Protein 1
Amino acid sequence: MREALVAAAFQLFLERGYEQTTVDDIVALAGVGRRSFFRYFPSKEDVVFPDHERCLADMTAFLSAAGEDDEPVGRVCDAARLVLRMYAENPAFSVQRYRLTKKVPGLRADVIAAAVVAAHNNGLRSWLRSDGRGDAAVAVDHALGLVQGAFGGGPTPPADERPEDVVVVVSRRGAPLWRVVREIETTLGRD
């Protein structure tokens, strides 16, 4: 029943659009009543992320089952891989959901919230690493402006600040600069 509701919802989202599809439309196509829908999903938005609760429970159980000998960073990375596997279990659905969330602003709220938190933390940490010199608000506002520009919710950043792609490089603090630069150049295809 749950899978039938999800399939019906996505069929209608693709045919009519998310905003134009109602819960009544979904249950009619699935051949069930409204009560059945709400037994599985609290709202139309929840049918877009039907596996969210299961994935969260799986990650929580996985992290809770860690032993004292488990290395914490490795364990958290393995938990992140659980999320990846969830997406990879059904690539077609994952791609459909990704396209839908890019089109519907209300569905991007969680992604936007995560980006705002990450931008805030980055700006704040930059200021803290400078031993509190300068204006903390400037660093945070700059980072938040990039988020606003990326999601179309604010002024568009200048052309030289608009990323077409994002590259994240992880390096040990003591790594020689030449090694970090080489990694960036390799990633960007400039070697």
Note: The mean pLDDT is 84.
Protein 2
Amino acid sequence: MTAHSRKTGFLAGWRNLMLWKQITLALVAGAMLGVVLNTTGNQDIAVAIKQIGVAFVSAIKMLIVPLIFVTLVCGMTSIGNLARMGRIGLKTILFYLGTTAFAISIGLLLATILQPGLGVDLQAASAMEPKPAPSIVSTFINIIPKNPIAAAADGNVLQVIFFALLFGLAINLAGDPAKPLRDTFEALNAAIMKLTEIVISFAPYGVFALITWVAGTYGLDLLLPLGKVIFALYLGCLIHAVIVYGGLVGAIAKLNPLRFFQGIVEPQMVAFTSTSSSGTLPVTMTAVQKNLGVDNSVASFTLPLGATINMDGTAMYQGVAALFIAQAYGVDLSMGDYITIVLTSTLASIGTAGVPGAGLVMLSMVLTAVGLPLEGVAIIAGIDRILDMARTTLNVTGDAACTVLIAKSEDQIDEEVFAVPHVLEPADIR
């Protein structure tokens, strides 16, 4: 066999792999390469490779505003019934807030048992100025865009969601005269989804580049001393995903949890490497509809909202990080402090954007609420990227779980599609 034929055979085999398998191989290969680059002192190569990942993330972010706006308008026009619309909205918000409180509690419990802060000598170089937590009133007022075009340009997802919901409602109320506009948005939605699939096809290369940079930059030197706090969060995220989300899908929706997790492998891996719930939204939209059979009328409402207000992973991170800092500084927290952490994290998650690093802002709010030293944030910031990978993956998993549960309750899920053990293949995006 010639070198050319071997190369051709490899490329053909690679192209025929399911996308989730391509991403998995890219993830492993990138991690291995990153560790090698770090141990050999070639971190600059990892930084250079990162640019491929940056380009991929930029392409995904390019889709966020048009995808949210078009799919939400289509979702609103397809629901039609105002009572059903309100019912879906109430279920979504209750699910997100309820699971967020569970996530923080799991984080606090694990941090209490594992005590990751004991024996860690915190020597913060500088304090971090806390940002005051937004009040509930100001949060709701800020949802209303003064200029929808500016909101879209600034990437203010909550404001885009608010305007899209009202615009879709107005199309419904206008009736027959607005039918051409409704048809136009359906056509736009089809085009946006196809563009999304094209961008997703480059996910393995973006994942490879990003994980190479993470492993090449941090290596093992930074991870080992703070390994317990990393382990606590990753374990908590795994428990929450399997027991809470998997349990709800199995017990409430009466669907196979294993099939659910298989169907969302792609958005989980993109979330793990990009650390952006909003950035992963296009991938999640495709996965829940094509792999899990969720109707667009539900997915187009619950997923954009979840990418903005569902922060289960981030909330769990608050519990683990707060106790880590308290233990490292020798501060004993009361039961009232624990309750304050749960309430502050749950409410603050509503106003925290689904972008990389937003968890640090929330953490400063939580630490301020219970009187813990803000200098601890400087140490957590050193491993924040590693922690962000796990918490964002949990956030996205929660978005998908909520969507499946609500779709099932509204009889808007194709269970035959859900039951088919497959994920998006390369052939689907040609």
Note: The chain has one domain: 18-429.
Protein 3
Amino acid sequence: MPGVRPKAVVWDFGNVIVRWDARTLYSKIFPDPPERDRFLAEVCTPAWNVEMDRGAITFTENCAKLIARHPEHEAAIWAWRDRWWEMFSGAIPETEAAIEALHDRGVPQFGLSNISAETLAGTLAISPAFGRLRAYVASGLEKVIKPDPAIYRLACERFGYAPQDLLLIDDSARNIEAARALGFDVHHFTDPAALRPALEARGLL
């Protein structure tokens, strides 16, 4: 919100603190890019994956249901569960540095992520930056997912701040716009190099 300095920062996890991309794994399984892209567009789709982030179904159950529809891709579908961590390619250094700098300034930091309960602990172990978060709201635990307004309201309640006091940093335009509509200050994370200037512009660093 222009002219208002946020009091705390709320971080999304995937592709904000840590890099996640299904293609990182599936490029190994499908070396042919069109074949890989077709699999991710038609079989293991974002809409299919979101049900695990929502906490509606386990990885095992969701993979088994999908295999029933696409038996020819059984091994590749099980890889979504069994080789999940190969979709990650480490933490984002600019974000880690910003989180440490905010911590040194005493700025409260929190997390708000669409993430399966099954993968939450492993994700938090990827970077020490997660240890700087005072609390987090994870969709798979709460059974509600961004951009549903309910999860943003839950975050405000749990963190103890009004929306206008919070800066949400997220890589999803839909999630950003939903938060903005509720009164959050927002930064659409698309370029790691733009992160620190965005924090400095708000007087946080």
Note: Strands lie at 8-11, 18-20, 88-91, 109-113, 135-138, 166-170, 185-188.
